[in-house]
Amino acid sequence: MDVGDQVPELKVTPDKYLPHRYAGASGDFNPIHIDVEFAKMVGLPSNILHGLYSMGLVARANATALAGGDPRALKRLSVQFRGMGLPEQEVVVSGTVKSVEGDRVVVDTVAAQSENQIIRNAEAELQI
Amino acid sequence: MAIKTEAIGKKWAASTYQVGREKIKEYANALGIENPVHFDVEAARAAGFPDVPAPPMFCVVYALPAMAPAILDPEVGINFATMVHGGQVFEWGEVACSGDEITTTPKCTGIYEKDGKGFYVFESTSVNQDGVQVLGATWTNIVRGI
Q1: Shortest CA distance to B89 belongs to which of A91, A14, A74?
Q2: Which of A45, A51, B51, B137 minimizes the number of CB atoms within 10 Å of its CB?
C-alpha cells in the first residue's frame, strides 16, 4: 500500500426499490427519496438516493478493498454531498491512497454516476 | 433576511437505541455488505466480537432518533423545502454490536450564512452501555436561498 495507489473500484446499480429498502433499514422516510411525484413537485428529476446510502457505499468500498470488510477497520470518514444520486444508474466508487503512516491509511474517495460526482472530497481513514 | 443564530450552543436530550441482530442484517442487506460477521453470530464470535457487529455506517440508524428532534427544532429554524445534506463526518471508537445500548447526545455548534446559503452544523457523541465512545459525528445541513 503506497501513496498514489488506486483502491479497487466498487460498482453498484441501486434498483428502483433500493431507496425504499434503505428508508426502512435506516429510518429516513423523507419523501424526496421514496415518492417520485413528491420529488418532482419540489423540482427534482425523480426520487433521489439517500446521501447517507451513498456514503455507506463509500464506507463499504474502502473496508472491502483494504480490510476484507472488517467493521473494525474504518476509523473516520468525512464526505461532502454534491450532485444528486439517482436510482437505476450505476454508482462507481473509486479511491486513491493519500497517506500511509504505520497501520493508518487515508484514502481520497469519490462516488459518481457517469460524470456526476455525488460524493466528493471523501476522506476515509482506516487501520489495517 | 438575517439568519437566526439563537440555537447555537443548544443541546437536546440524549436518546438511547438498542442494537439488534435483525436490524443489522436489514441494514447490511440494503448496502450489499456480505461479510458473514454481520449475519451469523458464530462467525462474529469467531472473528473476536461479543455478538454480531454493526457495519460502521449503521451509526446513522442508532443516531437518528437523537438527531431528528435537533434538526427539526423550530428554534433552529431550518427551511426543509430547500434543505440539502451538505457534509458529514463520522469518527468511530469501539465497534457497536448487537445487544449494545447506545446513547447519543446532540448539540448545535454553528449556524452561519455563506454565499447566500444557510449552514446548520450539529455535533453528536454516542456512547455504549459501558460509557465507551462508539461515535463522534458532525452533521452539516445547507439551506439554499435563505
Answers
A1: A74
A2: A45
pTM, two decimals, is 0.95
* Distance in Å from the first CA to the final CA of chain B: 7
Residue A46 near residue A115 (C-beta atoms within 8 A): no
Q: Is B83 exposed, middle or buried (0-12, 13-18, 19+ CB in 10 A)?
A: middle
What is d(CA B34, CA B24) in angstroms, rounded to the nearest whole number?
12
CATH 3.10.129.10 fits A6-127, yes or no: yes
* Contact between chains at B30 and A22 (C-beta distance less than 8 A): yes
Q: Where are the domains of chain A?
A: 6-127
Query: Over the stretch B116-146, which tens digit does the pLDDT of each residue have?
Result: 999 999 999 999 999 999 999 999 999 987 6
Q: Distance (Å, rounded) from C-alpha A43 to C-alpha A52? A: 21
- Is residue B37 a contact partner of residue B44, using CB atoms and an 8 Å limit? yes
B72 in contact with chain A, both atoms CB, cutoff 8 A: no
C-alpha distance from B130 to closest chain A C-alpha (Å): 18
Q: Give the torsion sign (CA, B55, B57, B58, B63).
A: positive
Q: Does B60 touch chain A (CB under 8 A)?
A: yes
Q: What is the helix (H) or strand (E) element at residue B107, kind and residue range?
A: strand B101-114
pLDDT of residue B82: 80
Cell of B29: 442487506
Indicate yes or no: CB of A42 within 8 angstroms of CB of B81. yes
Residues of A in contact with B53 (CB under 8 A): 71-72
